[in-house]
């Protein structure tokens, strides 16, 4: 198998690459990046005979198509995905090569499903798998795993926490962008849009994360999960950046216009407040609490089985780069083995066999804390 990882020198891309080079069926891994400095790579990738770092720009459509024709799968880890998911997928479809991304921006997902990309991919017999990271990705697969064990699914709650100690590059862009404007949620059987960064609740995560405040964020699952899990009433996704002061400051910046996207003239210079805030967020002042080197997921699936109410809960905690990169690597290997047969644009819950995926995920050291709660439904 020959793989092309776009954004290959970034943290998520390297997470994919480090797993792929270990696999005997993988012959080569091309790491395409706008800034192809070997010093950015970890020694395992830099010293691997299978890995090669090359320059690639997501705005170079012809260059991507030419490069993609030489591989078996393209794995897009170049965020932010509201800017990159669609152009990279278009290039992969034109090259007639299977595509995977770790897209966590709902805008890109919405376009992929509702544009000509889906039909062209189907006609070409290729798969465009979007959202195959951690969130979305692993939690989508867990949702399917639990849904398959229920007669019906009523509610799905997806919560995540990311420490800013793990944030870098495009991840900051996504972290600010996901709170702007109205974001999708699936409530009472309908897709609705709520104000990003609102709806605060507290949720408990595994140590060292503890109790965190969660707010509505703009992720793809409210768009994709109802396509595959019928009659679900609620698909809610909320997230948090920790320490708590980070989300509080982002909310204040949003409320006071510092995350505005309309250009402003400042003493003869045109400045977009969002771009300035993003640049400043890239450098956290010395001495501020950056939180633990850890991030977490919580998946809650509620439904019915044999006339009883059943609630499944899954909790995970770990480092963000391997937690996001490993799912994409596993999916690429499953494609190569013929375990992903759906063609066209598809989300993880629509094409990934949960049992096979979770077996590989656990084999790589992942740990999932699961609970099942069963209660009788009283009938009067």
Automatic annotation (TrEMBL):
It comes from the Bacteria. Signal peptide: none annotated. It holds the Pfam family Sacchrp_dh_NADP. Residues 209-365 form the Saccharopine dehydrogenase-like C-terminal domain. Residues 5-127 form the Saccharopine dehydrogenase NADP binding domain. The lineage of its organism: Bacteria, Pseudomonadati, Thermodesulfobacteriota, Desulfomonilia, Desulfomonilales. Coiled coil: none annotated. PANTHER family: CARBOXYNORSPERMIDINE SYNTHASE. This is Saccharopine dehydrogenase-like oxidoreductase.
């Amino acid at each position: 198998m020959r793989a092309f990882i776009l954004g290959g020198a970034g943290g998520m891309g390297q997470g994919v690459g480090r797993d792929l080079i270990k696999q005997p069926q993988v012959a080569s891994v091309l790491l395409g990046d706008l800034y192809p400095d070997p010093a950015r790579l970890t020694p395992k990738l830099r010293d691997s005979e299978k890995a090669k770092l090359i320059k690639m720009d997501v705005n170079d459509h012809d260059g991507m198509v030419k490069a993609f024709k030489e591989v078996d799968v393209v794995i897009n880890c170049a965020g932010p995905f509201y800017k990159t998911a669609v152009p990279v997928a278009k290039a992969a479809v034109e090259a007639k090569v299977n595509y995977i991304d770790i897209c966590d921006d709902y805008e890109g997902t919405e376009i992929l499903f509702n544009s000509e990309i889906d039909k062209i991919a189907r006609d070409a017999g290729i798969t465009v798998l979007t959202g195959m990271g951690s969130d979305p990705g692993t939690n989508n697969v867990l949702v399917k795993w639990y849904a398959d064990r229920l007669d019906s699914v009523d509610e799905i709650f997806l919560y995540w926490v990311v420490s800013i100690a793990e944030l870098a590059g495009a991840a900051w862009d996504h972290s600010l962008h996901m709170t702007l404007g109205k974001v999708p949620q699936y409530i009472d059987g309908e897709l609705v849009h709520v104000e990003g960064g609102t709806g605060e609740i507290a949720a408990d995560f595994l140590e060292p994360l503890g109790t965190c405040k969660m707010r509505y964020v703009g992720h793809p699952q409210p768009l994709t999960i109802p396509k595959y899990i019928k009659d679900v009433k609620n698909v809610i996704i909320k997230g948090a950046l920790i320490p708590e002061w980070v989300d509080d400051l982002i909310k204040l910046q949003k409320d006071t216009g510092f995350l505005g996207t309309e250009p402003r003239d400042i003493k003869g210079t045109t400045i977009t407040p969002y771009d300035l805030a993003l640049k400043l967020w890239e450098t956290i002042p010395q001495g501020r609490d950056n939180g633990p080197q850890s991030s977490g997921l919580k998946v809650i699936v509620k439904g019915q089985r044999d006339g009883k109410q059943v609630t499944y809960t899954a909790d995970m905690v770990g480092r963000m780069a391997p937690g996001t990169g490993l799912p994409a690597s596993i999916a690429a290997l499953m494609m190569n083995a013929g375990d992903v047969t759906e063609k066209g644009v598809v989300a993880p819950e629509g094409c990934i066999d949960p049992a096979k995926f979770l077996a590989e995920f656990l084999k790589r050291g992942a740990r999932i804390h699961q609970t099942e709660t069963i209660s009788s439904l009283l009938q009067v």
